[in-house]
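Allow me, if you will, to draw on your knowledge of protein folds for a short while. I have a record of one protein: its chain in single-letter code and its fold written as discrete structure tokens. The full record is reproduced below for your convenience:
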Amino acid sequence: SMRTRESFVYKQSNPVGNLLAVQSYAELLDTTPTRTDDDWLKAKSYSELPGPNTWRLLSYFLPGGELHNMNLIQMNRRMREMYGDIYRFPGLMGKKDVIFTYNPPDFEMTYRNEGVWPIRIGLESFTYYRKVHRPDVFGGIGGLVSEQGKLWADIRNKVNPVLMKVHNVRQNLPQIDRIAKEFVDKLETLRDPQTNTLSADFHDQLKMWAFESISFVALNTRMGLLTDQPDPNAALLAQHMTDFFNHSFKYDVQPSIWPYYKTPGFKKFLQTYDDITEITTNYIEAAMKRFKLEENRENKCVLEQLLTLNKQVAVVMAMDMLMAGIDTTSSAFVTILYHLARNPAKQAKLQKELKGILSDPSEPLTAENTKNMPYLRACIKEGLRITSITPGNFRITTKDLVLSGYRVPRGTGVLMGVLALSNSEEYFPQSEQFMPERWLKQDTASESQACPEARSRNPFVYLPFGFGPRTCIGKRIAELEMETLLARLLRRYRVSWLVEQPLQYESTIILSPHGDIRFKFEPI
């Protein structure tokens, strides 16, 4: 429409319009007067928070600077060394300040005061793309990552019964299990029987498994990525997703002038978004046509269930699942498998549990036989403790808070550094050890000795999927996929790590394994 085009032109030419579109959460903040209670008055002022000023921070990113060419993890670690367990990271290029904290009481204070509509600013480029650059496609709906307040709650309330109910998600187990079996069968064709090594890149193969799994859950569509005739667009989309994570770190995490000036690099990023949108839209439209021809099926996929509620929300959610469900799940799985490969005694314990569930490796996994897999689930938890998908959880404070003895006014960003604490002796004794036993309950530990004293008593230190109303919406799906593939893979092979060095990671907006990733798969 003319109005949409006018809005589009205005926001393209007006950086203030861009920033308002991206950061429209001020109306969600608490409107009561500034606090005057004793805790607030006794606290140190906001200006006393440690941290660099804007110009010093900018100098850190220049060649020779403290943070030059560092990834997110390195950057966080260096800043903490310089400024301590709480510091202020000044807002750059129109962004708000962010307080980095490594004190768990601050985590609890932040979460306990976030209210029913927590504010978590996602990727600003993502919000800009959907709400400003392409309103023709998204109709003003940014999705769960971008929306705030009532708009966010309306979507989340529609989606929660579909994606957060265990029973609803686990109805996908038979097909997810079939996909896991196909993946293991494909690995067998790639395995050299003499050396037990693979002739293809394991991580790339794993991304195809993750994509095949999430496309079934979201669209009830099989891409054929584990066959000899994969859908060519799926491989393209996987590459676009890798580009998306790299671009997003550059334009959403590092300082950037894109809200004021669209650089050639940022325009290339928008093209990546366009490519992702085009491919996912085509998949969604094809799935919707197929649904009309298969109306009487019992089990309906996520897209079908959401279409009965709201078409636009359904399309955006299906797209988000395809975007978010490839690199995240595959990266987490590599981490978990790596730790099991490096710890053969723990792997043997898991295989003993799996043999009790699947006496014959070809038996199907069912709702019944997957109920009792405490050691497998503990292995997943322990892998995610050592390396979570993101280094921290983020919120915008809706109220004035006192964090680590400093006044933090409403509307300030807070990043809670859970990854560093999950690898700290203070919260997890023998934190460098892969010890699934720390997650076992006494009553479920048969031969495996439960060791709950080896995990933190503070529930806010370990939160791989976040906390509260904005808990990761894909949590149940990711757990189902990882549990199923881990059971299938470890029931069939003894796995060992072939590289001399530990597993390496690159940190964009997620932590992703990279470099030399080689396993040996010895048939059981």
